[in-house]
């Protein structure tokens, strides 16, 4: 998933009050879909894998990217001089 999609999911979860990382059990997903990282949009097989992932460089970079302002159409038009 791209950064703007994840930012939208996080905003939606905050406004509705429903956690973005909670899924019903699904045999097709790793770990039954119970170990999901919202920031990277990945499923993991167990809690240890998720905890190790949250210590990784990739996770920390993604969190830093998500803190930046979302790129909008208005910003694109302003950059183009419209």
Automatic annotation (TrEMBL):
Record's keyword terms, sorted: Cytoplasm, Metal-binding, Nucleus, Ribosome biogenesis, Zinc, Zinc-finger
Gene Ontology CC: cytoplasm; nucleus
Compartments, as annotated in UniProt: Cytoplasm; Nucleus
Molecular-function annotations in GO: ribonucleoprotein complex binding; zinc ion binding
GO terms under biological process: ribosome biogenesis
Family membership noted in the UniProt record: Belongs to the ZNF593/BUD20 C2H2-type zinc-finger protein family.
Protein name, as recorded: C2H2-type domain-containing protein
Organism: Thalassiosira pseudonana
């Amino acid at each position: 998933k791209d950064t703007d999609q994840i930012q939208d999911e996080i905003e939606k979860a905050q406004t509705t009050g429903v956690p973005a990382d909670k899924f019903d059990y699904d045999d097709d997903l790793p770990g039954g879909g119970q170990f999901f990282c919202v920031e990277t949009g990945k499923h993991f097989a167990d809690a240890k894998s998720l905890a190790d992932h949250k210590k990784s460089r990739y996770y920390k970079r993604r969190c830093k990217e998500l803190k930046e302002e979302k790129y909008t159409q208005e910003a694109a038009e302003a950059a183009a001089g419209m």
